[in-house]
Structures are given as C-alpha cells and as structure tokens.
Amino acid sequence: MDIESFREYCLSKKGVTEGLPFGPETLVLKLMGKMFALAALDESPLRVNLKCDPDKAILLRDEYPEHILPGYHMNKQHWNTLVLDGHLPNSKTLNLIDHSYDLVKNGLTKKLQQELTAL
C-alpha cells in the first residue's frame, strides 16, 4: 500500500481530518480531533502508526515480526508501526486501519459520538 491509498482510505471514513502538526514529514489523521493514524512521509518503505488493542498488538507483532512493530514514538502498548513494503497484505492493513478508527470512535465522549453521527 502506498501513501496515497493509505491517506484516501483513512479520509473516506466519517469524521476524519488530516494535518501536519509535527512537521511536514508526519501526516496525522484524526477522528473528531483524536489521532488514530500517523504516516512517516519521509520513510521508505512507508511506515504508519495505528492504534491497537494491547492484546491484539502483541499477537500481531508475533505473527508479523518484521512488518508490525511497537509504535515508533508512541505508547508501545497501544500503538503499532506497520512497515508497508508489500509483504503485509493490503486487506490486513485496511483491517488494522478500521480497528484503530473503531478504538478511537468507541473512546469518544457521548457528545462527540453524537456529533459524528450527525455528520
């Protein structure tokens, strides 16, 4: 998966915005103001950080030790770094984007969840 496919898929989700708050080399995608995905624009191969359930994160790192790593510059219990060099199936990447989005969505306040529903 390339950066444009990653970006477009994330932005297709309801309530998602993008920005560069950490500088031009890190794309940050947020759901209702809460981060759920980051992409290192200056890395080759592309590396992205996604939020993940802690138990699932450990299983994924064991299953894909060279392609799913503890989250770089993030809380390593709750974030994974995916190395998108073509070895990780796109379906797995899309599934993990959905998982990250859902974790953040489920953690939103009731007010933000209502605003999201109204969009």
Automatic annotation (TrEMBL):
Keywords: DNA-binding
Domain of life per record: Bacteria
GO molecular function list: DNA binding
Gene3D superfamilies from the UniProt entry: 3.90.1150.30
Name this protein carries in UniProt: MmcQ/YjbR family DNA-binding protein
Species in which this protein is naturally found: Gillisia lutea
